[in-house]
Amino acid sequence: xxxxxxxxxxxxxxxxxxxxxxxxxxxxxxxxxxxxxxxxxxxxxxxxxxxxxxxxxxxxxxxxxxxxxxxxxxxxxxxxxxxxxxxxxxxxxxxxxxxxxxxxxxxxxxxxxxxxxxxxxxxxxxxxxxxxxxxxxxxxxxxxxxxxxxxxxxxxxxxxxxxxxxxxxxxxxxxxxxxxxxxxxxxxxxxxxxxxxxxxxxxxxxxxxxxxxxxxxxxxxxxxxxxxxxxxxxxxxxxxxxxxxxxxxxxxxxxxxxxxxxxxxxxxxxxxxxxxxxxxxxxxxxxxxxxxxxxxxxxxxxxxxxxxxxxxxxxxxxxxxxxxxxxxxxxxxxxxxxxxxxxxxxx
Length: 347
Ligand code: 5GP
Ligand code: MN
What we know:
The chain is an alpha/beta fold. Helices cover about 40% and strands about 20% of the residues.
């Protein structure tokens, strides 16, 4: 890969830069023989969907490609063909593969810390590292980046990259996860980056075989009863601040125990608070089992930003969807701290 002009840490600021970085990424992928694809802990639809879209594309060229993740595939993405091939990281089995890969693609996350256990072998590997992502403020670890902070999803960027490879065929197995990636990261085509261009992309994916009805049904109409009961607990205890514009929901260990719910079950909860009249910012605090860590999820409507507050708590993410983890502070205290941080910005 010596003769390929890689970008290093470089955000694609314009459509031309993005196009050129996608073309370089295609060149890099076509030269690779042994490829690792990975993404963040607690992968969401964009993480799993982007990984599988990449997997099917790369299979056309490489001798071997493996998706290796720190966390398991959430149950509502198991219907995606190929999800059964995703490796749950096991150092004894996977380190050798990762260390001897010639290309590692890190998707939908922009620092190796959020890869958790997979981060160390990724950092130690001499493979070319390709970062494909849409989060702000990427860390400098990749040899080449397709980072578009304006993209709706990593799935959208993967689609753009594949479409720079004239003649590439997107099979139904690849179209479905890419559609799922875009659908989930746009809140089912409701968030601000949903525009004509995005609909043209999903139109292409549907034409390539993605079935919007069954993909939605499989991902969103699969909520376990225990999760619905847990959501009830979150609503019962929610508090509104600053003229009912900020909603904070709290889930303690006792709530998880009472509803027999798992930690993963909170996925999608915080968004639902945004449908309350007048709510501009929603926050979910959840205790972690057997730990003093609290997971915080922030969401906001357009014109309101939550990322800076997440960053002030050592977290990160997007302007309107971000998260953080804090340890050693009681959950009620975290609630007060968070409410206070939003005091000035809500009338
Ligand atoms: P969620 O609320 O769904 O866990 O996360 C929303 C967004 O915030 C994700 O896109 C993710 O990138 C970011 N995020 C969540 N938790 C953390 C965290 O602990 N650290 C950082 N840097 N980002 C996070
Ligand atoms: Mn994403």
